[in-house]
Amino acid sequence: MSKTVQIALGDVKPLALSILSSFGYGPNHADAIAQMLTTCQLDDCHSHGLFRLFMCIESIKAGKIDGQVEPEISDESTGIVRADARRGMSLLAMEAAIPMLIDKAREHGIAALAINRCFHFSALWPEVERLSNEGLAAMAMVPSHAWVAPAGGTRGTLGTNPLAFSWPRQGTTPFTFDFATSAFARGEIELYKRAGKSLPDGVAIDAEGNPTNDPGAALQGAMLTFGGHKGSALSIMIELMAGPLIDDLTSLESMAYAQGKGGAPYHGEIMLAFDPVRFSGGNRADNDARAERLFADIIDQGARLPSQRRYAARARNLERGYVEIASSLYEDLLALRAWATTRARQKRSGA
Q1: Mean pLDDT computed over 137-144
Q2: What is the pLDDT of residue 99?
Q3: Is 300 exposed, middle or buried, given 0-12, 13-18 or 19+ CB atoms closer than 10 A?
């Protein structure tokens, strides 16, 4: 069993902030990124927690991301909000645009946010849950890099292409799901590689198009969609919705843009917000009750609602006041911070 280390909840965000700031992220970007990582780590979402700091640092070291730029938010005078991230991380653009998205959803019943020219690395469920906490149902989707083969294919064409949805509930946590349309998230395969573990069957193919359980070979080959042709079709839909529909890149185009360099993919994101008050014709209370009867019947059968384990992890970590991560990951993060601190000291001294 892998060794773990405990990090006090109050130390998670400062650890992320110190690393991000040391590598050139300005205070606004660093705070938005660190808050997202903290939210994910609190819910034991390890593949999108502190582990993602490496992608953030790799991206800015490669000279791809502007860590200081402020996004530009445009009101289209319709139900559409546009956020130009201007080659920054998506999170600050999302933070700046969400208030307008909420207002437009309440005004029109439905509204959309198109985030363009952004680098993206983060989970989508915190974004849609934020809208559910405002009483709105929400969806979000993004492409990535062409790491995933379509059903029947032999090479990467599609992205991992996650889809997230959240439904607001009174007095309890939202009904939320967030999953990649690939059989595994890219970050999960990277964690398997770090841990020296074999992948399950049906997750990936190697560079020759043969099935593989080796995470290293999978990273050099291509991942597979879940559910065969069904997952493949859903992934293609996300390519279109979060790419050409909003005047942004597909996963193939994003990978070409990267020119073989690592780091976060460069593309767009679309978020959709729905106001149950407007859609229900004033009968929200009755329709909320119908939704709750649906959830109750699912649970009564012994089935689990999506995110129940994540919410349980959140409650457990809040009660005990700390999160646990792999010792090797923690040591790597401390080494990264120490290296950055030494480099900054040398620059100040002119060495």
Answers
A1: 98
A2: 97
A3: exposed
